[in-house]
Write a structure and sequence with these properties.
Elements: H1 5-18, H2 29-42, E1 47-50, E2 54-58, E3 64-68, H3 72-101, H4 106-114, H5 127-139, H6 142-153, H7 155-158, H8 178-187, H9 197-206, H10 208-222, E4 224-226, E5 232-234, E6 240-244, H11 251-259, E7 263-268, H12 275-278, E8 280-288, E9 294-302, H13 304-314, E10 320-325, H14 332-336, E11 355-356, H15 360-369, E12 376-377, E13 383-389, H16 401-404, E14 408-411, E15 423-430, E16 433-440, H17 441-454, H18 476-495, H19 513-521, H20 529-541, H21 544-552
Parallel strand pairs: 6-13, 6-14, 7-10, 10-13
Antiparallel strand pairs: 1-2, 2-3, 4-5, 8-9, 11-12, 15-16
């Protein structure tokens, strides 16, 4: 399947620019062996002498050239473009052979190729042009047809110099070096002095072992960014981490702070989440054929894991985060499937193990998106997987020990100092009368949590300091609705569903949740005597020290 050359050129340039240095590369013994094997494949008639910081090549005519090792950065960054250009080159070469085999005159064929790429395509009226149109119409799908149309008509789509000049307007398809020139223009080098650079780039495109070694042993070892003092700070290794704690403690907020402005793919697990949702699957798609009839086809639709993987592999120098909210609302080990094996990591954050991709549609989809084709999956060092979970929720799925062992866990504790700002109107009893008091959410949640902890309620079922949002506390009416429709439901139906509701609520007067909620909205006192006393005490004294010394003690 053909690729969008215009987008690929930008992607390759971004990969090149993201590398923190473009200086000389020390070519160690392992790299020498991989380079030599691949270069002999690309140019078998030349002699190659690979040195520590340069490569000597002697061609079949005895002419010598010294290639600097700094050119290896270009090989790494632009090998994906080299592979894509070769696909188009092969199409043109096959077409030329087909045309000559069908007795189309060589002059006719030369005239066509001399005028390509240009907007003259479809307008020349040549037999060779009609044959090319027929081959494209019959042998390629709609996406490839679109790309070939760009390739044959729009020179700028694949001849893309950093700055256009008379010398960089591009060569026509009758020239044997047209594709080589396009590659050099994309790399932004002086064409006249860099003919051999394309050989190095092609060496990377021909050898996955060379590409992977260079990426893992060279790129990852120099991956860094400069701080304001000019020192190098290594890219933080990828991790698997789950943030857990009581509901409303700001777990997602903590994750967002961790991610910052970096690339992120976010998903939410739920009880019906499956492997096919998380990774991807073949799904139907309707489209119109050339006659305007609706046809059903099937294509691979990627899930969040594959989306994050492609981002990470395509931008090795940038941290990428896959964020899974509510990871334990689905059977996580089943959702991960064989990806479970990938979660073990080396010290640099890369995966210890890799797995073969058994789904050919998934493999084809990934290879269309990444700079260099793959045959197996392995978590790259720049991909972190962050997740949140509430272990106290009723609908959660248990995690087995083997799955949990592959994650770091960080408990997000309740922090009253950072509680949501806002006050809550509470009606308390005053003898035979009623008294309305205002208490802050911080004080209210602290009093409720203290009472719950005395009942031996687990800490992850208490009220987080952000359990209610600022919009829910923006005024008295909103606060009343939030308590009645959200907080009371959580306390009555979840935390205290098996008993001890009397510690928080006046259960002698209100036997059902409906009675309790309706009474609270009518401004009647609904809390237990103990809770009322503590709320009144705090309202009168307005002091955190009093809460610590008098209420808690």
């Amino acid at each position: 399947m053909l690729k969008d050359l215009s987008s690929l050129i930008v992607e390759c340039r971004n990969i090149f620019d993201s590398v923190s240095t473009h200086g000389d590369v020390l070519i160690n013994m392992d790299l020498k062996e991989l380079l030599l094997n691949s270069l002999k494949t690309v140019e078998p008639k030349s002699q190659w002498d690979i040195r520590d910081y340069s490569i000597l090549v002697i061609n079949e005519n005895g002419l010598r050239a010294e290639l600097p090792s700094s050119w290896l950065w270009y090989g790494y960054a632009f090998c994906g473009l080299s592979k894509a250009l070769n696909e188009y080159k092969n199409i043109i070469e096959t077409f030329k052979k087909t045309a000559l085999a069908q007795d189309i005159e060589a002059k006719d064929l030369e005239k066509l190729l001399t005028n390509l790429p240009s907007e003259q395509y479809h307008k020349l009226g040549l037999p060779s042009e009609k044959l090319l149109e027929k081959i494209i119409s019959e042998d390629y799908d709609n996406q490839d047809k679109e790309y070939l149309e760009h390739f044959l008509t729009n020179r700028a789509w694949w001849y893309s110099p950093l700055k256009s000049t008379r010398q960089t307007q591009g060569k026509t398809l009758d020239r044997s070096d047209a594709f080589k020139s396009a590659l050099l223009l994309a790399a932004g080098v002086i064409v006249a002095n860099a003919d051999r650079l394309t050989v190095l780039i092609e060496a990377f495109s021909k050898s996955d072992d060379l590409y992977n070694y260079f990426e893992n042993e060279i790129i990852n070892n120099i991956t860094a960014k400069k701080n304001v003092e000019g020192n190098y700070i290594p890219l933080q290794a990828g991790i698997n981490k789950i943030y857990y704690g009581a509901p409303g403690t700001g777990k997602s907020y903590r994750v967002n702070n961790k991610v910052g402005g970096n690339d992120i793919v976010r998903t939410v697990f739920h009880p019906d989440t499956q492997y096919s949702d998380f990774v991807g699957s073949l799904k139907p798609k309707t489209k119109l054929d050339s006659s305007g009839n609706t046809r059903i086809s099937y294509e691979f639709r990627s899930g969040p894991f594959i989306d994050a993987y492609i981002k990470a592999v395509s931008h090795k120098k940038k941290p990428v985060y896959l964020v899974i909210e509510e990871i334990n609302r689905a059977p996580a080990a089943a959702v991960f499937g064989e990806l479970f094996q990938l979660l073990d990591r080396n010290s640099d954050g890369s995966g210890v193990y890799e797995i073969n991709i058994s789904d050919p549609d998934m493999l084809e989809y990934i290879n269309e998106k990444v700079p260099s084709p793959i045959t197996s999956l392995k978590i790259p060092a720049n991909l972190s997987i962050l997740a949140t979970m509430n272990s106290s929720d009723q609908a959660v799925m248990p995690m087995d020990t083997a799955f949990k062992r592959r994650w770091l866990f960080e408990y997000v504790s309740i922090d009253y100092a950072n509680a949501t700002f806002g006050s809550i109107p509470i009606i308390v009893s005053a003898g035979f009368a009623k008294n309305k008091i205002e208490t802050s959410w911080s004080d209210f949640s602290r009093i409720i949590n203290y009472t719950l902890s005395r009942l031996l309620i687990p800490e992850d079922r208490l009220l987080g300091h952000r359990f209610l949002s600022e919009s829910e506390l923006q005024n008295s009416e909103a606060a009343k609705q939030a308590l009645s429709g959200k907080l009371f439901v959580y306390l009555w139906d979840d935390v205290l569903r098996h008993g001890q509701r009397e510690a928080i609520f006046n259960t002698e007067k209100f036997n059902t949740f409906g009675e309790l909620s309706a009474a609270f909205l009518r401004d009647e006192p609904v809390f237990s005597e103990e809770i009322e006393l503590k709320l009144s005490d705090v309202s009168e004294k307005k002091s955190q020290d009093i809460i610590d010394s008098h209420i808690i003690d």
